[in-house]
Amino acid sequence: MTRQKRSHHRLKRAVAPYLYLSPSLLIIGLLMLLPMVTVIGYSFQNSAVLRRDPTFAGLKHYQAIFADPVFWASLWHTLYFTCMSVVFHMTIGMVFALMLNSDRINPTLRNILRVLYILPWLFTAVIIAVIWRLLLEPNGVVNSVLMQMGIIGSKVEWFSSPATALHAVTFANIWAGYPLFMVSLLAGLQGIPRDFYEAADIDGAKAYQKLIFITIPQLMPIIISISLLDFIWTMQVFPLIWITTGGGPIYSTEVLSTYTYKLAFSSYNLSQASASAVVILLISLGLTLLYIRYQKAR
Amino acid sequence: MAEVILENICKTYGNNFRAIDQLNLSVEDGEFLILVGPSGCGKSTALRMIAGLEDITSGSLRIGGVDVVDMPPKDRDIAMVFQSYALYPHMTVSENIAFSMRLAGKPKAERKKRVDEIAKTLQLTSLLDSKPANLSGGQRQRVAMGRAMVREPAAFLMDEPLSNLDAKLRVQMRAEITSLQKQLGVTTIYVTHDQIEAMTMGDRVAVLKGGVLQQVDTPKRLYESPVNAFVAGFIGSPSMNLFEATLMGDELMSGSFAIRLQDAAFVRRPGLRSYAGRKIVFGIRPEDLYDSSLESGRKYQTIPAKVTSIEELGSEHIVHLNIDAVRVDSGDPDAVDDFGLASNAVARFEPVSAVHSGSEIRLAVDDAKFHFFDPETHLAI
């Protein structure tokens, strides 16, 4: 092989991987990077989108949203909504996965429970929102059952009262999201060698010690990965809150996504909406970097 | 330390499959007993029943004089080494060894002292902070031993602990486990399907087949005096050659050849005379068959044979042969592998033998080493 042919061959080998990657890179660039960069650009402009010749605004819109108490309320609600959702998704997912993995439950019953427990996953966010609006209505099933059981004395307006609305939407989101944890943890549980538990039985481990010393450490990679992903996804939840409460009453369920949406499509303040979107982007980016770092470390 | 006594132990599963049938076994204090048998013979089930990991359908099990049938595993005062070692991957070697002490709420200083002692015995001191994933197969095996030793149990139970190691390491670990057991003097029940492990490690060997105990004896007696054709075929590698023949007077007639039996054979086995004129099964180990061209001095009787293939192992030749006789199946599923499609006998020749594949030879037979079995019951005569 001549030197020219050899260098041509080397060039082809170097370029080939990028050629294979180019279609996906092009799609990601057009559908994700371009809008992202555009929104970042809007957040530094006055009257973005609305005017043909927007002027540079510097950090004005960021200052405006940071000075807005509704933004801070939204941020707090987002954190509450997200943290509670992730913690309960994990706890409920773990309890149900342990139940479904247990030999003590009859196999037929286990299969029925498996289907029942996974049901919330089959519904779209809109359907879940409608179901819970109906159930949590003042004249709905939940109030009726709780009153009959004597837990509440009078009808509670779950979604309409500022005291309960955030808890109610969080509850609906917890109900909708635990199956992901359940399925992932169940797969993890089934991969833990039986020998580990038998060795622990011989060593005298009680059930809770087996859970603490074997099950949870063995599931830890799954728990961390899914928790980080759930955190990222839950922070961006929009339709469930929008359809159940619309962010109200009196901003009591306002989260960053509804806050941003209202800025953009109710107030038509697209520049400030962009600044708010960039804040969401930065938080999500931080969590994503954590996730990537964790995956690399593994 | 304690003796382990199994009396009429049975194990029947839900589908009425009887995995263990009337197992009676007495393991003395400090004894190293090997449970051996082909796949599915019930040896691991028996061990797991002793450990308490499987329920006992019926029978009695005593460890150190205490009836443990209804006791959970932790109260039986046993430690088990698993085939997979069952080391917790998220714990260091030190944490793995100390796990049972941690569960028992022993103080940290006491745990450390005991772990250090064990690590010293097992040469694991430099590895105490490593995770199992960073250890070699042999090191993991030693950690599993350490985890069993830390409890100072009355008995060790080992379930094929060497089967995940390569051949060389297995030889080394065989010796290590044997000497460790002698040093500790703890009653040990060791399950294996490898009859070389069975013959080299244990004080006594219990051979199981289909959940039924066939014979319990010292390795030497198992080899020399198997109680039936199955034990004869299972113990020894390659397996004993078993053939059908007719006893005519003092001659064994099989196909186109006859072998005259010495009087000593009848003196040693008085029952042999009653088979005169009847079919009988005779067995001869591969090491008792010789290349006649090398054995002219010993005046062995010879029979015709055709060499079908040769495995040259350096120290010996494993020669696959075809002789004019009907081979008898010992009932050992693993023994079938010793014979090729075209051969029905295996011999172990010295490496100086010049026989080659396809050659017709005279096979020298040491008839004093014959074993005889009933053709119906396969019991030794």
UniProtKB/TrEMBL annotation, chain A:
User: Which parts form a coiled-coil structure per UniProt?
Assistant: none
One Pfam family named in its UniProt record: BPD_transp_1
Q: What is its main location?
A: membrane
Which UniProt keywords are listed? Cell membrane, Membrane, Transmembrane, Transmembrane helix, Transport
Query: Which N-terminal residues, if any, form the signal peptide?
Result: none
Q: Which PANTHER family match?
A: ABC TRANSPORTER PERMEASE PROTEIN, INNER MEMBRANE ABC TRANSPORTER PERMEASE PROTEIN YCJO
Q: Which organism is it from?
A: Mesorhizobium prunaredense
Residue ranges annotated as transmembrane are: 20-44, 79-100, 112-135, 165-190, 211-233, 273-292
Q: How does it sit in the membrane?
A: Multi-pass membrane protein
Q: Name one GO biological process term.
A: transmembrane transport
Protein's cellular compartments: Cell membrane
State the name under which the record lists this protein: Sugar ABC transporter permease
The protein's matches in InterPro entries, at most eight in alphabetical order, are given as: ABC_transporter_permease (IPR051393), MetI-like (IPR000515), MetI-like_sf (IPR035906)
**Record's keyword annotation contains Manganese:** no
Q: What family is reported?
A: Belongs to the binding-protein-dependent transport system permease family.
CC per GO annotation? plasma membrane
Q: Tell me the ranges covered by the ABC transmembrane type-1 domain, including all copies.
A: 75-291
TrEMBL record, chain B:
Q: Does the keyword S-adenosyl-L-methionine apply?
A: no
Q: Which residues form the ABC transporter domain?
A: 4-235
Q: How does it sit in the membrane?
A: Peripheral membrane protein
Q: Which UniProt keywords apply?
A: ATP-binding, Hydrolase, Nucleotide-binding, Transport
The text of the family note is: Belongs to the ABC transporter superfamily.
PANTHER family linked? MALTODEXTRIN IMPORT ATP-BINDING PROTEIN MSMX (PTHR43875), OSMOPROTECTIVE COMPOUNDS UPTAKE ATP-BINDING PROTEIN GGTA (PTHR43875:SF1)
**Which locations, inside or outside the cell, does it occupy?**
Cell inner membrane
Q: What is this protein called?
A: Trehalose/maltose import ATP-binding protein MalK
CDD domains the UniProt entry points to: ABC_MalK_N (cd03301)
Question: PROSITE patterns attached here?
Answer: ABC_TRANSPORTER_1 (PS00211), ABC_TRANSPORTER_2 (PS50893)
Q: Which Pfam families match?
A: ABC_tran, OB_MalK
| NCBIfam families the UniProt entry points to | PRK11650.1 (NF008653)
Where is it found, in Gene Ontology cellular component terms?
A: ATP-binding cassette (ABC) transporter complex, substrate-binding subunit-containing
A GO BP term here is: carbohydrate transport
What is the enzyme's main class?
A: hydrolase
Q: Which Gene3D superfamilies match?
A: 2.40.50.100, Nucleic acid-binding proteins, P-loop containing nucleotide triphosphate hydrolases
| Gene Ontology molecular function | ABC-type transporter activity; ATP binding; ATP hydrolysis activity
What is the E.C. number?
3.6.3.19
Please report the organism this UniProt entry assigns to the protein: Mesorhizobium prunaredense
**Matches recorded under SUPFAM superfamilies:** MOP-like (SSF50331), P-loop containing nucleoside triphosphate hydrolases (SSF52540)
* Source organism, top-level taxon: Bacteria
